[in-house]
Amino acid sequence: MRTETLSSTKKTIVGVQFLFVAFGATVLVPLLVGINPSTALFTAGLGTFIFHFVTKGKVPIFLGSSFAFIAPIISATEQWGLPGTLAGLTSVSLVYFLMSALVKWQGKHFLDRVFPPVVIGPVIILIGLSLSGSAVNMAKTNWLLAAVSLVTAILVLTFARGLIKLVPVICGIIAGYVVAVLLNLVDFAPVVAAPWLTNPVSFSTITHFQWAPFLFMIPVAIAPVIEHIGDVYVVSAVAEKDFVKEPGLHRTMLGDGLACLASAFLGGPPETTYSEVTGAMSITKVTSPAVIRISAATALVFSVMGKLSALLQSIPQAVLGGIMLLLFGTIASVGVQNLIQHKVNMNETRNVIIISVTLTMGIGGAVLSSGNFALSGIGLSAIIGVVLNLLLPKTKVQEEEHSEK
Fold first, then answer.
1. CB count, 10 Å around CB of 85?
2. Which of 55, 97, 112 is nearest to 403 (CA)?
3. What secondary structure letter does DSSP report for 197?
4. What is the pLDDT of residues 181-225, one digit of tens each?
5. Around Cβ 216, how many Cβ atoms within 10 Å?
6. Are 380 and 358 in contact (CB under 8 A)?
């Protein structure tokens, strides 16, 4: 479905739905690390607007709280307190800025050499599969609610027509929530106690700067930066546009880095590109950046509406988990499509090695650590894929294909 054919009302509804998709993860991170969830919603909305400004409003990406920093923030807070940790999080933006400058300097040739399809494909697959554990853990808290939300979303996606077909996620969440209310599984006490309006940010959160937490967070930023590259390729595939070329990966990284910097100063967690929303775009076929900006605006509104924010937080994890079971799988399928579309030859031993090791390390949960430094998950797997691609010898055919590019 072409986005330009949608009315303003339909775009608004889809935009709100996309926020529903990102809401659970966006507020879960601050809840786990001791940050105000309303602050996370505010910085997610603001960060998304900053990103769209830097990328000329062309890239349909929503920025939300990064899961990669949960353990590091908890560890850093124990050592330097939350103010010191938030000051240290400003280093995350520095990594984005340096990578942005490198990509701007070297251009697309640098990306083609370091991140060819044989590396990007499995990384995209991992972005989806690595999140599958979170989806299952959320769903298994109550399989009945998860099943209701999942089945409803599938039925709407498969059989619905018109406006309803655009909102399978909202339909799934509503159905699951209604069942949860009927089973008396929703606690409305926090909603009643919540104020109507709330101030989501504090400009005095960062009270002092320390080098220790600043340096501590730098290696952690490697993972989301590499995820960012994979996510931009995913969004490009879903929207059928080359955002790596225009407006350019250097702009998307700069936008993400500025969003992280703003979030740190306002007391929020680092921002990252949200695969959940990309999955929702893949399902609904709505890829308009304007719709994503509606999601960002909705996040800003929700951040100051205390009771509405509390009501959304009352949605059972199982309901969101059922939806995630569908969304995360679509991301992995985009990775498979990426390999197919770029005609990656699976008969080549070199390609098989790169893909196999990258997937195994990522799915297996490999961790590389030394002292306070730790690298794992998608970040570690992507680095391994890049190193293997650079070190393993190419056949003459592969060298000729690369030289032609």
1. 28
2. 112
3. B
4. 999 999 999 899 988 988 887 665 566 677 778 877 876 777 678
5. 22
6. no
